[in-house]
Structure formats: C-alpha cells, structure tokens
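agent: user wants the structure for ABC transporter permease from Eisenbergiella massiliensis. delegating to structure tool.
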Amino acid sequence: MKSTIFKTTVREIRESLGRYMAILAIVALGVGFFTGLKVTKPAMLKAGGEYLEENNLYDLRLLSTVGFDESDVKQLNEREGVEIAEGAVYVDFLAQDEEGTESVLRAHSLLWVQNHVVVRAGRMPTAPDECVVDSLVFTRKDIGTTIRVSDNNEEDTRDMFSGTEYKIVGICDAPFYINYERGSTALGNGKLKGYVYIPEAGFDTEAYTEVFVRLEEKYPLYSQEYKDYIDEVMDWAEPLCEEVAQARYVRLKEDAQWQIADGERELDKKVAEAEDKLEDARQELLDGEQEIEDARKEIADGWKEIADGKAEIADKRQELADSLTELQDGKQEIEDGLDQLEEKRIEASDMEEGDEKDGYETGLNLAEAQVKGKKAQVESGLAQANMGSRQLEAAENTIARQEEKLRDAQKKLEDSEKELADGWEEYEENRQKLADETADARKELEDARKELADLKEPDTYVLGRDKNIGYASFESDSDIVEGIANVFPIFFFLVAALVCITTMTRMVEEQRTQIGILKALGYSEGTIMGKYLFYSGSAAMLGCGIGFLLGSYIFPTVIWTAYRIMYRLGDFHVILDWKLGVISLVVSILCSMGTTIATCRYELTSVAAELMRPKAPKSGKRIILERIPFLWNHMKFLLKVSARNIFRYKQRFYMMVFGIGGCTALLLTGFGVKDSISSITYNQFDEIQINDMSVIFSDPYKSMDSSEFEAVMADNAQCYTLAFEESGDLTLGDKTKSFTLVAPEKTEDIGLYLNLHTTRDEPVAYPGKGEVVLTEKLADKCNAKIGDTVTIQDDDMNELELKVSGISENYVYNYAYISPDTWKEQTGKEPEYKSAYVNVREGADVHEVSAAIMNCDGVASVTVNDDMKVRFSSMMKSLDYVVLLIIGCAGSLAFIVLYNLTNINITERLREIATIKVLGFYRRETASYVFRENLVLTGIGAGVGLIMGYYLHRFVMYNIDIDMIAFDVHIAPRSVLLSIVLTFIFAGIVDWVMNKKLDAINMAESMKSVE
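agent: tool returned. relaying tokens verbatim.
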C-alpha cells in the first residue's frame, strides 16, 4: 500500500474510531466466544486429567463378595498389562466427634501408589491412629481433634479397626471423590457425610475389601482410545477377577472345613478334659461327704461319751455326797459317842476303886478305842471322798475341754458342710456351664457348617472409572459445554459478518466521491480496495487476536470456576489452541474482508467521473402505511416521518431487524437452554419415576431369605413391587442403542411407581405380551416408531422380537418396558426379580427407611429418588453459569450491533438532524425523532428474534447430546419476556450513549450541500 493511501487509511480509522471499534469488538466477541467455548472442554479435561494422573487414579476397581488376600493381589500384579495392583480396605462406620455428635463416614486405607490424596492443610498420617479427612466436610479447625469409632457400630464394624480413636492430622481432597457425591450407606440416615483416609495399619482385617489396578497403557482422559482400551481389558480382567475370587472361595471353603473339623476335635478334647475334671471334683466332693459323715459320727460319739461321763460323774458325785453325808453323820455320832464316853469316864471317876471301876474303865477304853477307830475310818473316808470330789472336778474339767473340742469340731464340720455345699453348687454350675458352652460351641459349629453349606459362588465386579460418579459426571458436564460450543459461535460469526457488511457498505457509500478522486488520480482498483481491506482486515485481525487471547482465558476460567463448586480437581491451565486461532483468523478475515470485497466491488467498477458525482436520490415511494388511509390520516406528522424513515431505507431496516433479532434470538436461546435443562429433574423424579426408592438385591428375590426385608416393608412401606431389570441393546435396522430392560412382577400395579405418558401428557398403556414401550430418546436414536418391530438383546444374549406399542416421555437414562409374560414366552425362563420399587409411608423419613433396608440380608444397594433429584439438580445448576455467560455475550453482541447501526444511522443523517435542530426542535424532541425509529426497529427485531430464537434453541438442544440424558426442550414464558425486556434495555442504553452524539451535531451542517 502506498504511503499516501496508508496515511489516508490511518486517518480514516482515527476519524471513524467508533465504527472501526465496532468491527473489532464484534469480531473479538465472536472469536472469543468460539475459541473460549471450544477450548473449555479440552482445558477442563486437561486439568482433570493432570489431577487424576498426578494422583494415580485407578483404571479398574475389583470387588468380590469373598474379598481378596495378598496372594490374589500378587496374581493380579503378575498379569501382563498391569502396572500395579493394590489391595485396599474400606468400611462405613458411625463416627463420633469430640462433642459426641455422630455421623456416618467411610474409612479408606491409604495406598502407596494409587488414589493419592491431596493434603490441603496439615500433613499426611504417619501413625496407625492418625487420619486425613474430607475437605468438603471438615475445616482447618478440626485438625488436632479426634474421630472416635462409636460403640453403636456393629461388632463386625468395630473389629475392622485396630483402634477406637483416630487423630485428624490433615484436610484432603481425593481423586476417588472429585465431585460432591459421597454415596449411600446402610448406616444412620442412609447418607454418607464424608470420608476419612487411614494408614493400612489402622485397620485390623485379614482380607482386602477391594483391589485397585493401574494399567500400563496411558490414554487421554475420556478419549475414545481409552474407552476402547478398557473394553479390551475387560475381556481378560473380568475372567481373571472371577478366577481369583473362585480360588479364594475354594481356599476359604477348605479352610472353613478344616477349621470346623479342628473345632470339633478341639471341642471333643476340651469336653473330655472338662468332664474328667468334673468327675475328679465330684469324687472329691463324695470323699468330702464321707469324711464329714465320719466326723459327724465321731462328734456324735464324743457327745455321747461326754453325756455318759457326765451321768457317771453325776452318779458318783451323788454317791460321794451320800457317803459324805453318812460319814458326817457317822463322825457326828462318833463325836457324840466320844462325848458320852467322856461323860461316862467322868462318871467312872466318881466310882470307887475296884474291879467294877476297872472293868468299867476297861470297857470305856475299849469303847473309846473302837470309837476312835471308827473316827479314823470316817476321817479316812472323808479324805477319800474329798479326793474323789477333786477327781470328779478333774473329770468335769476334762469333759469341758472335750466339749470345747467337740464344739470346735462341730464348727469345722459346719464349715466343711458349707464348703461341701458350695462345692456341689460350683460343680453343678461348672457342669451346667460345660453343657451350655458345649451346646454353644456345637451350635457355632453347626452354624459354621450351615454357612459353609450356604456359601455361594462369589460374585465379582470389575468397575472402570466410568462407574465412579464424579468421573462420569465430569464427562457429562464437559460434553454439555462442548455441545453449546458447536452451535453458538456460528451465530456470532453470522452477526459479525452482518455488522461488517453494514459498516463497510455505509463507509463505501460515504466515501464514494473520494474513491472517484483516487481513481482519477491514477490509483488502481487494487490499491483503493486495499485501503478498505486494511480498514476492515486490521480491525478483524486485532479483534481476532484480542478475542482469541481473552476468550481462551475468560470463558474457560469462568466455566471452570462454576464447575469447581461441584468438583474437587487440580489447578486450571489456560490452553492456547493455535489451530483454533488460525481457524478463527480465517473466518474473521472472511467475515470482514470478504464482505468488504463484496461491498466495494460495485463501486470500483464505476468510472471516476460517475463516482465523483453524488448518487441520484431514489424516487420516492409510498410505504405500506400510506396505503391504509384509516391509519395514515390519523398519525401525527413526526410519526409519519419516522414511519417513512423506517420503511424507505430497506437495507438499514433489514440490517437493524436482523441484527437486533439475532441478539434477541441469542438471549432467548440462552434462557431456553436453562429452561430445558433445569426442568428435567422435576419431570423425571416427580412426574415419571414416582416411587420413593429403588432396591437392588444381591440374589434373585425368590431364592433368598427375604424375611428381614419384608419385616422392614411391613413397618415402613406404603407399598412395594418386585421388578426384573437388566441392561441390553436395542436394534432396529443399522441402529443399536443401550438401555435398561424393565419387567415388573405385577404390571397392574406399575402405575403406583411409574407414570408412563407422552410428552403431551397422554397416558401410555403398559405393554402386553409380545409388546414393548420405549422411552422417547431411545426410540429417537433408533428411529423406532409405534408399530415397528425391534430386536432386544440382553447381556446373556437372549433375543426378543417385540412390537413397539408406545413411546413414553423420559429424561434420565434409557428404558424399555415389557411384561413378565413376554420375557417368559420368548426366553423360556421366569424373570429373576432382583429389584424392587418402594413407596414409604406418609411421614416416614426416606433415608432412615433406606438405611433399614440396607441392613437387610440380601440387599445390595438402595437408591433414593430424592438423592437422584439433588444430584441432577446440582449438576444442572452449575450450567447456570454457562447460560449466564451466554446471556452476557448475547447482551454484549446486542449492544455492539445496536451501537454500530445507530451510529451509522446518525452519521448518514447528520444534515437531516442538524436541520430539525435549526427548525427549533428541542433536545428531547430531536432525540425522540431519531431514537423512535430505533425503538420501533428494536420491537420488530425482537419479534423476528423470537422466531429465530425458537428454532435456534431447538437446534442448540439437538446438538447438546448426552447419551443418558434427554432434555425437556421448551422455552418458558418468563424467558420470552426477559429476552424482550433485555433487548429493549440494551437499546435504551445505546440510545442514552448516542444521545451525546446528537448534542454534538453542529446546526451549521444543515447549510452544507453538494455542489
């Protein structure tokens, strides 16, 4: 470009900066929206992928009803293609904080290689009694506090832990839980509050509850290559898991058999030893009884001897007393006799000497001698009696001592008798205890035999990442953003092209004379064209660069910030996709420079002399309103002028209408997307699936012990019904789609749990024999219509040929409904009912009932519909930020379009506006004269935009295609009203801004005219 032309172009940019900036802004907005939305999903997946890869999220999760041991893990590690396999432990438990409040947490064991937790505060555990906890539930203030395993837990649960208290040393995020979902449980109210991670030493269990596997091959997150790779891996992983579980099952069974046999031998041995001890104790007690009996006899004999001795002593004492009495009497008689002899001796002294006196004295002496002899005898008898008395006292003392000994012996005998009684009581207790313990032990052995007999082949599950709720939800959410990115930018570029056409058309028309002068001066058509190409191209390229850089940062950052409300992932990194940048640049240049070429082509083909003369004004034409006298004759003059200005300048009319209409269409589409997404939760779980919860059994219901489940139902359920559910594929022509096949046990009661109806709320009858009802999206994807015959194949390769009898409204997952008679007729087998639909009693707590059901034998899982509603509502709520972003961009687009078109309108009518100001129009009247046309065109454009927005909305929703979710495609009346109001608000803002330009118009312009 020659320097003079370049200077002229730069001057043109400076003097018409508003017009130049309009092109730049509209291109920047279009490119920013296009690149921003396009890089959002890759940026989200990159951030998520880096986070999950850095923390080594598992590829496969293996579960088995018999658990795993070290040998199982070793066998898995030896498999080709496995990078690492690690056994892990998890358990749900009632946790108690330091204030005594209980909540349900899930404890996981920390692994060395996989599923690394990310500590947000504090540190990692180093001791068995330390843990890190969920950052969604706990805060930094909780670090240093303890979590206690509540005594209200079942014994089996408490036994899983090596301790009862665990100190919180850190707050963490875990790749296993990247969103807010924590899952359900059989404890408490049925909902998990959060998770804790504990070192493996913090658990006390011999078996692993799960095994995580990392594979050697690495592929991008959510890529089709990764999904195909996992499908291939499943071909060997599932059989290997079954093989490992079967081997453990055999080991457990053999160990159980040996343990039972050892237990029986040990029990028999212990019983024999205990019976021997009891017999010895019994013999000792019998010997003790004999000894007591002998002692009792000895004591009785002793008492008898004492009694006899006492009687003998009493007799002897009586005899002695009688003897003493006789001796005393005799002694007294002797004394009396001696006294008499003394008296006679006195009498003899008075006698005369002689033979008579001698004889008398001799007689007295002889009598005295006899009396003294008797006295001596009596005194000897008294002495002997006294001695006998002392002997009797000694005998009495001896008997008293014997009595004391007998009393002591009697007391010992009583103690011995008590000890003997206690011994017999203890013997009886031990004998009873032995009998009870033996009975209990034999019952345990019998229970063990029964459990062994009832021990079933293990069920195994190999789950990929797609079965992780957070992982799967993140993919669905990113897919929605991608669906929007595929549609909206196209409309932005169309509006950008429209703005460029309008701007450059007005610019070329304004500079028609200048183009003629340049041609007259000898400038080539290419040089002159280059001026305008540089004008529009430079604006487009600058706008493209600004939009590319800002869009690549702002859009993903805003959307990522919104999604971080739901997800716990790593740091976000801006992605500059230069391929998208080149595409954006090419499209921007086509929109700007292409329209410029199309605009200038006609003018440049004209000769210089013709261009230097102004265009002859078009002949006046009557507008449509003038042909309606009833309306036209009653209109005021200014209204007539405005009407003529609106309808006479058709190019401006169409540009304004379609520009404003496009903005209204974008607003309506943004609000419509929100309406279509936000309503599916209510529609699905309040209008279609009207049951309170769904129960999955581990075995067919009719082959399991259902007494506990039925007891819970009797106490808590208003009603329930069994159902057969199985995944399968539907085929019609070359179309195949996955779905869930449902066959309730009692089809006549299905209306209590499922409301089948069309989108027009017309009821759909439940299918009869040989028929099937398909959900709407399933039918749509397979092009199935009522009356068509479809082929259904389940996972067991059973094929059913069915006639479509109805198509029902549905929004979450895909279903096909048949009757149990149909299944039996076409497969030859009775349906295995492994599901149940439950409605709880009015006023009952759904989650408490769910927890009670989870505690029942044979129940594998319980899904509460309220939880599903919360889950999907939260997922859809995060899209509000995306919709607000779209609405904000639509508003910006509306502002730019309105500003540009209004600026052009004012610029090309400067002399007209100056003239009416000279004629005495007040400021407000002048503004009303100009902006009245804008408001009318805004109204017409808004009306056109509503029609455009309706079809654009449907097109957008068609392109937001999530496999398991259908949208309720509709636009609420409120959204229509908001779109119109916002369009007029944007128009009002533009009019307010442009009012200053009206004030700046010089009235002298009205005196200028073309020579």
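agent: one observation worth passing along. The chain has a mean pLDDT of 80.
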